[in-house]
Amino acid sequence: MKIRGDIVQTYRDVHSWVGIISALFLFVAFYAGAISMLEQPLQDWLSPAVHLPAPVPLARTPELLARIFADYPEARENYTIVLADDAAARGRVIWSPSRGQARGPVPVRAAGLDADGALVTSKPATSQTARFIDVLHQQVGLPLPHETAMIVMGVVALLYAIALISGVIAYLPSLAKTLFAVRIDGGARKRWLDFHNLLGIFSLPFHIVMALTSVVFAFHEQIFSLEHMLISPTRPAGLHQGPRPMPMPHRERPSPTPVLPPMAILEALTRQAPGFVPETLNYTRMHDRMTLRVTGHDDRYSLRGPTEGFANLDPSTGRIISADYMPGHQPAAFAILTTFFALHFGSFGGVWVRWGYVVLGFGGAFLFYTGNRLWIVSRRRRERRSGLMRDTRGTRFLEALTSGCTLGCIAGISAIFCASPYLTSGGEYGSVSMLYYSVFAIFVTSGFILPPPVAHRLHLAIAGIITLGIPVALAIAPQTSLLSPIGGSLTLCTVLIGFTLLFASRRPFRATLPPQG
Length: 517
Known about the structure:
- Keywords: Membrane, Transmembrane, Transmembrane helix.
- The chain is α+β, with helices and mostly antiparallel strands.
- It has helices at about 5-35, 40-45, 60-70, 85-90, 130-140, 145-170, 175-180, 190-200, 205-220, 220-230, 260-270, 330-345, 350-385, 395-420, 430-450, 450-475, 485-505, and strands spanning about 80, 95, 110-115, 120, 275-285, 290-295, 310-315, 320.
- About 55% of the residues lie in helices and about 10% in strands.
- Strand 3 (about 110-115) and strand 4 form a beta hairpin.
- Helix 2 (about 40-45) packs antiparallel against helix 5 (about 130-140) and helix 14 packs parallel to helix 16.
- It is globular and about 85 Å long.
């Protein structure tokens, strides 16, 4: 395939400029996104233990509910039965006094029965560290209101798509002969350029999916309003997110229709949807009647959300009344949309796919970092050839931002992991956010104050030290165990990243150039 040289150069320029504009946002999105693939296990692991008796058997759940409703009648309006025993250790039944939906953590109360059958309640504290990292991923690192940040994220995703397309066109002519060629003897810059291109080409399908789905998420309200108009016009828009219905104000009178016991609900569900593994039963009073949403998964099918799908059941009969978001039972149109979402969340194929997404996420962050470093080195070389002995203001500005933003992101996330076990409730959202952005601001500010070589090496070294401090800090903390699966996985990742950063600080990625005078 032959493309004119001037066209190729135009696409290379577009790829470079659009890439450097979006790369700093995308680095944060991919680095935090890789970690957020493990959001739920990280949240459970970092959260303080709940002091409750062992979960009652499911068969005794009606007894537990009766005692809860007697002491806490408001719980009738919105309560959840946790089915899996390991998750139920934090409460077989949980409820929230909050009304409606809220963005952010919602206070809950959990309950169990002691050996004598007496009600024991607790207010479990949930670490917000993993949730903050997920929001950081969604908002491409911007500390803005969520709606505003999502619009910016949508623009960044569009630039990301343009950079992908222009990069493929620009390097397509030489792809066939250089696909597996990494120039070992051609200097550091050429080696990194070859590796950058190789990594970009082989992860291209993943990046295309991320770019397209990110645009959808940024403008999801408009898109899903259209979806429900076209696919399911009788259902209210917004159901895609699985919001809980607005509970009605508490009334003392019982529900007009009796609710089946949990065991009967599960038996009815198994008959209708064999293979679906239910995880929670969420009951909500809506317009004087109870509604039931069952969340769960089916390993044979993709999930619409990051970790689960759901179905709406009639709580008095156990009959499925809506399976639009139930894996394996969706209408064709909804199943197609679910596949699209599952490709972004990695919610298919089990744990190995999720770990594959972790690797691809870190690889994507590395791709954006090397892209900016390559551009800085190339620009500096051109400036030296033109007779300039000092970096121009634009080169220095981008180098300071690249070093401060990328390594500040790594150091900030590492810092909140180090601190979480020692913060209230395993890290409340406000304190975690303040710590991250403080570290991030220090890195960015020092990037502009210190000479570029000094700042870059210092940032690499400090980020590496903080990252290596994570397993040490977590090993000392009494509530976190490095011997658990998530603890061991986190230790392995942090050791690899930490030593890589320390090694890079000894030989930072800079071309051999004349002194800057």
